[in-house]
Amino acid sequence: MTGRQAIMLWMKNHSTFRTKEVADAMGVERSIVTSAAQRMTREGETVVVHRKWHDNTYRLTTDEERAKFGPLTGINVICAECRNSPVMKRILTVYGRASA
């Protein structure tokens, strides 16, 4: 059983989860559940409700939250906009990183 599968099975009956609870209940190693929870958080499937040293509490994201933030593409939009601005193009030209 994968960490994601264990989390999804747990979430059928609970509103939140902690990695230790899921690991103990499903018989999966805690490190597998922890890495799956972190991956799901990066992908926007879960949200950290409460942070505590090694014992975070997670919940699934709502449809409104997914609609608000949209799909995560992994592209840093701010840096791309800055890099394409006229001022930054001049700066990059001076340092030989872009053509005039």
3D architecture notes:
- The structure is a single chain.
- A hairpin with a 6-residue loop joins strand 2 (46-50) and strand 3 (57-60).
- By secondary structure, this protein is of the alpha+beta class.
- It starts with a helix and ends in a 6-residue tail after the last helix.
- A three-stranded antiparallel beta sheet has the order 1-3-2.
- Helices cover 53% and strands 12% of the residues.
Q: Identify low-pLDDT runs.
A: none
In total, the number of strands is 3
Structural class: alpha+beta
Overall pLDDT: 85
**Tally of helical runs:** 6
Overall form: elongated
In helices, the fraction of residues equals 40-55%
How much of the residues is beta strand, in percent? 5-15%
Helix-strand pattern? HEHHEEHHH
Give the biggest sheet.
3 strands, antiparallel
Output the radius of gyration: 20 Å
Order of adjacent strands in the largest pleated sheet:
1-3-2
Distance between the termini: 55 Å
Question: How do the strands and helices of this protein lay out in sequence?
Answer:
Layout: H1 3-11, E1 16-18, H2 19-26, H3 30-42, E2 46-50, E3 57-60, H4 63-69, H5 77-83, H6 86-94
Antiparallel strand pairs: 1-3, 2-3
Notable features of this structure?
three-stranded antiparallel β-sheet; elongated
Q: What's the short version?
A:
The chain has 100 residues and is of the alpha+beta class. It has helices at residues 3-11, 19-26, 30-42, 63-69, 77-83, 86-94, and strands at 16-18, 46-50, 57-60. β2 and β3 (57-60) form a beta hairpin.
